[in-house]
Amino acid sequence: RREVAPFSDDDVALAESFAAQAVIAVENVKQFKALQARTDEVQALNENLESRVATQVDELERLGRLKRFLSPQVADAVLSSGNDKLLASHRALIATLFCDMRGFTAFCETAEPEEAIEVLQVYHQEMGALIVEYGAGVDHRSGDGIMVIFNDPLPCDSPAEDAVKLALAMRERMAGLCADWRKLGHRLGFGVGISLGYATVGVVGSSGRFDYTASGTAVNLAARLCDQASDGEILLSPRAHKAVEDAAVVEPAGELTLKGIQAPVAVARVIRLKNAEAAAVRA
Fold first, then answer.
1. pLDDT digits 0-9 by tens, 112-162
2. Which residue in 20, 37, 61, 158 has a CA-CA distance of 20 to 30 Å to 1?
3. pTM for the full model?
4. pLDDT for residue 59
């Protein structure tokens, strides 16, 4: 305008209309930017969620594989550590426990298959629960035979003592089971062999089938002691005996000539834990 004069009502209305449109445009831009930021945030969250889900699925798959040959708590510990090197082949000082039922082969020859399977199922269910309760690292089962390892892949302070505690709990539980089975005419017993020594431990196998296991003279010795144990006996190798002499009441069981072991072995028999004996005296 070249002349200074008051704005007309139409001019004011037009200016107000432009101002209102500008406010709306500014507000739309703000909302668009807020929506864009929220969209980016949601997208980032989705990407993070997808990554976490993929990681958890991978962990569940690894956990499932580990639980095929490790106890649940050990599998969880290995997975949480993120260190698969724990499972690589290595030498370790371990306590090895072998146990099986006395008279099971003869029982299977005369029992109905359904009876044999039922006995075996109850046996493994009860022994498996004790193995987990007493924190064993690994257990393998074949028929009525069970092998348990202490001090690998996770360390423990007293592997031989822990093995003896498990063996005593197993013996006590099996005494009740065998008494029930005798009422059905099944004459079964239970024996245990325990050794302490160095062995080669790690994952062995091929694609689709892997096992975490131990091999060596100490492992063979525990197996041979189990073979020699009578019903209710828990036999110890010399080194295992030495390791538990302050914790358990034991007695000599003589020298045994064992298959695969060159020299005769001085064997000890576990009676009870010393703290259990002291508690009985106080009572």
1. 999 999 999 999 999 999 998 998 877 888 899 999 999 988 789 999 999
2. 20
3. 0.74
4. 62
